Request: fold
Amino acid sequence: MFAQQVSHWLQRRGIHYSWVVAAVTFLTMFIMAAALGLPGVLLQPLSREFGWSNEQISSALALRFALYGLMGPFAAVLMERWGLRAVMCAGLALVGGGMALATQATQLWQLFVLWGLMLGVGTGMTALVLGAVVASRWFTSRRGLVIGMLTASSATGQLAFLPVAAWIIEHAGWRYSVIPIFIGCALVAVLALCLVRDQPAEVGLGPLGEDFVPGNAPAVASGMTFRTSFVALREASGNRTFWILFGTFFICGLSTNGLIQTHFVSLCHDYGLSAVPAASVLAMMGAFDFFGTILSGWLSDRYDNRKLLFWYYGLRGLSLIWLPHSTFTFYGLSIFALFYGLDWVATVPPTVKLTGATFPKERVGLVFGWIFAAHQIGAATAAYGAGMTRTLLLTYTPALYAAGGACLLAAVIAMAIRKPQRVAKPALAG
Reply:
């Protein structure tokens, strides 16, 4: 009832209610991304207090990345069965609870449960799939813009909160740094509960760009089950483009979330840079990323997406190889933040476009869910691998070189994608 009243109030002022749903989704993805990124700035404080090595802490953080990605193919199923609002609130509750309870953790296994299991599953329920579902249900016009903005919110949220968290850790201790995330999860959950609805028809509207036709609400895929995700994977696995996108997106996660997001503050600490300025560089990357992702969406509508991926991965690889030689001065790190930040998730729009051009429309969400899972498996690999490198060799440099080389390989592989051709429509088996 409340949502309908707000919709009528906005409608009288010429504002479509879809923007309210998009705004709450933006906040949800932003706060969940901030929660996903926060543990990266806690490596040093946890190591000092409990004596855990980078490798041990990184293994728990790697689990959260893996679960975050592996939830992707099944998130759409959860949304179809229980609705957007329920999934958003459940995810926010898991993340808020996991962050708060971690302040009482004293054993490594507790970190695995709270920041590995609960954080991974909770954020995975509201990953990029949530933005895709909201955009497809609530928008016919402006859909590309909305997808770009929601994607940017997810990536930027992982970095933007870190300077605040670093300042809190420095002045009050690491336990207090989770309080803004907990409060944010609670507030956004209330907004989702009050304002989010599954379909525009529930507030007497059609999607933005369409007129409302009573009794003509889009059918929900009630026959969709978890088995449907595996059916989509089996069908996609016979297509070479799927494996190229799967492999390149694995490298994308390897070179972003798992490496820089998780270990950058610790890396800067090795070069004598304190947490606050290091986290500020990450926030700078987040700001550049916001514009870079939206620009990438614009470019992906106009240019060959394979060539875009070639340039994105190539430039990212060169920037990672250059990073150890930047001397970690403000000037050097600013240049890195500019080039690397613009490229942080610029690979998403071309990857989504190539997926959509290669696979049937009704399978695109599920197929991209598996490609996104590869991204987060790559992130988990880097989160653990870089931590192990730092523990055994006392330096991150080999991990940076390896990630940079992998990006150069991804640039070459992306050009091997054939010109997309639509495949025959399969039956949507449950």
Notes: The chain has 20 helices and no strands. Residues 2-201+224-414 form a domain with the Growth Hormone; Chain: A; fold (CATH 1.20.1250.20). Confidence is low (pLDDT under 50) at residues 422-430. The CA atoms of residues 38 and 213 lie 45 Å apart.
